[in-house]
Amino acid sequence: MESHRLILLVSSKRDEASLNIAKQLIENHGFKAESKWFMGNPVYSRDLPNGERAELIFIDRETVDTQDLPLPKHLKLLIFISKHKSASGRPTLSVHTPGNLGEASLGGLPRRVSVSPASAMKEALMAMKTAQEEMGLKYEVSYECTHHGPSLDVPTMFVELGSSPPQWRDPDAAEAVARGALAAASTSTVYPTVLGIGGPHYNGRFTRRALNSDIAFGHIISKHAVELLDEEMLRQCVERTVEHVERAILDWKGIKGSHRSAIMEYLQSINLEFERI
C-alpha cells in the first residue's frame, strides 16, 4: 500500500452500515479487488480524478478501536466509513474528525485530537447534501463535533450513516455516504478554514454556514465539551488542522454564560480572531 498520495478508506466488518457503504463503493464507484491483502482481508482500489489513488480496506474491529492500526507511511488522508448510533435514532448523514478533548472513553488517547482535514470534510458534507436532495432521502445532513477515537497524527475523518439499524441497511443512504467519502478522497480544493465552538452535537448553524459559503470547519467543540477547553487544548485543535485556521466561529447562544469569558481569554492568548453567530 505504499504511495506518496494514498487515500485510505476503512470499513469495519463489525459494522453493518460500514459494510453497506463499502458495497456501494465497490458496485457503483469503480473499486476493484487487488492481488494483495490487509490484515487478512482483501484490498480494493481505484485511481481518482485528482491523480491520486484510493484504497478500500476492511478491518475486523470497530472503527473507534484503531489507535494502533498499522498505517502506510505516505498517507494523505484516512476516511472511516461508519455507522452512527444515537438514542434519538434520527436518520442522519454526518461527518466529523475523531479525537478526544477530555478522557478517552471510546477509543483514542486522552486530550488528543486527530488531524482535521477541513476541506475534505466540507466536500463530503456537500456531496452528501446533494445526494440527499437528488434521491429525496428523509435524512439530516450534518457536521458532528470532534469526539471518540482514534487520535491519529494523519488527516482523519469519519463519514457516517445513522442512527439505527433501518438506516444502516438503507442502500440509498449508504450510496449517499459513499459519494461523500469519494468526494472527500477526490478533492484538491483548499477552503478558508475555521474552528467551531459551541452549540449542540449536531451543529445546524455550522452545517448551514458551510453549505452556503466557501467556509470549511475543522474541529468543532460542542457546548458539552467547552468545559474541557483550556489554552493548550484550543491550540491543539488549531494546530492539528490540515489547513490554516483563519478564525474561530462561536455559536454564542450555544455556549454557557459561565464559559464565555474563559473562551475569549483562550482565543486571545493564542491570537485567534473570532466571530459570533
Task: Provide an overview of this structure.
The longest helix is centred in the middle third of the chain and has 18 residues, at 118-135. The chain contains 7 helices and 14 strands. The protein is α/β, with parallel strands linked by helices. A hairpin with a 5-residue loop joins strand 3 (41-47) and strand 4 (53-59). An 8-stranded mixed sheet has the order 2-3-4-1-5-10-6-9. Strands 12-11-13-14 form a 4-stranded parallel sheet. The chain has a two-stranded antiparallel ribbon with strand order 7-8.
Observed structural traits:
277 residues, alpha/beta, 8-stranded mixed β-sheet, globular
Write the layout of secondary structure elements.
Elements: E1 6-12, H1 16-28, E2 32-38, E3 41-47, E4 53-59, E5 75-85, E6 92-96, E7 99-100, E8 112-113, H2 118-135, E9 140-143, E10 156-163, H3 165-168, H4 171-186, E11 193-197, H5 204-211, E12 216-221, H6 231-239, E13 245-250, H7 257-269, E14 274-276
Parallel strand pairs: 1-4, 1-5, 5-10, 6-9, 11-12, 11-13, 13-14
Antiparallel strand pairs: 2-3, 3-4, 6-10, 7-8
Helix pairs in contact: 1-4, 2-4
Q: What does the average pLDDT come to?
A: 95
Largest sheet: 8 strands, mixed
Rg, nearest Å? 18 Å
Percent of residues in helices: 25-40%
**Coarse shape:** globular
Order of helices and strands: EHEEEEEEEHEEHHEHEHEHE
Tally of DSSP helical segments: 7
Brief overview:
The protein has 277 residues and is of the alpha/beta class.
